Amino acid sequence: MNSRIIENAIEYIKTLFADKADGHDAEHTMRVYRNAMDLAGQYAECDKEIVAIAALLHDADDHKLFNTENNANARTFLGMQGIEPETIERICDIINSISFSKNKGKTLSSLEAKIVQDADRLDAIGAIGIARTFAYGGGKGRSLEAGIGHFHEKLLLLRDLMNTKEARRIAEERHAFMEQFLKEFEKETGAV
Ligand code: NI
């Protein structure tokens, strides 16, 4: 694994997300990167360098954050690292294929994409998922109730959408924690 490119990617995303703090920030990317490397460790056949770089760049052109076209931020970085054009395409394909909203129901073709998608989804659930939901909602001026709605529309669905066995195992725990949170929230607010 080329650790120089990984280190450079970490520096790049820290600069790119310097003014973000709504749950789609450099810390999210670093958690996704660590989740992805943990999952990748379970699969000898997986290309860990591709997983690492795709995880680190997975939100670099997120439309909620940046007005870029055709993975411009990711491509700018990858081009500067002297990475082969076909590898750049492979990484951009992974990034483009893992989005929940753009690719509902589609199955991913590569193990690397499955791992990065699982890593991103694990960071959307559990205690961190709860914290991110209200941080993001608050930033958009949304009510707590709207945040609760997001659990039912998306977050509670993610457990059953995990691609890998290890992600599914972690998702079970995080899912149970969210259900417990929702129950307690309803109890305290009297909401049904
Ligand atoms: Ni993400």
Give a verbal description of the structure.
- This protein is mainly alpha-helical.
- It has one domain: Hypothetical protein af1432.
- Helices cover 64% and strands 0% of the residues.
- It is built from nine helices and no strands.
- Helix 5 packs across helix 6 and helix 7 packs across helix 9 (165-189).
- It is globular and about 55 Å long.
- The structure holds nickel (II) ion.
- Nickel (II) ion (NI) is lined by residues 28, 32, 58-59, 120.
SS elements, strand count? 0
Name the structural class. mainly alpha
Report how far the terminal alpha carbons are from each other.
50 Å
Q: Strand-and-helix sequence, N→C?
A: HHHHHHHHH
Q: Helix share of residues? A: 55-70%
Number of domains: 1
Mean pLDDT: 92
Shape: globular
DSSP summary: helix tally: 9
> What is the annotated CATH architecture?
Orthogonal Bundle
Determine the CATH topology: Hypothetical protein af1432
Bound molecules: nickel (II) ion
Q: Estimate the strand proportion.
A: under 5%
- Main beta sheet: strand number and arrangement? none
CATH class descriptor:
Mainly Alpha
Radius of gyration equals 17 Å
Low-pLDDT regions: none
Write the layout of secondary structure elements.
Blueprint: H1 3-16, H2 26-40, H3 48-57, H4 72-80, H5 85-97, H6 111-122, H7 126-139, H8 144-153, H9 165-189
Helix pairs in contact: 1-3, 2-3, 2-6, 3-5, 3-6, 5-6, 6-9, 7-8, 7-9
The structure holds nickel (II) ion.
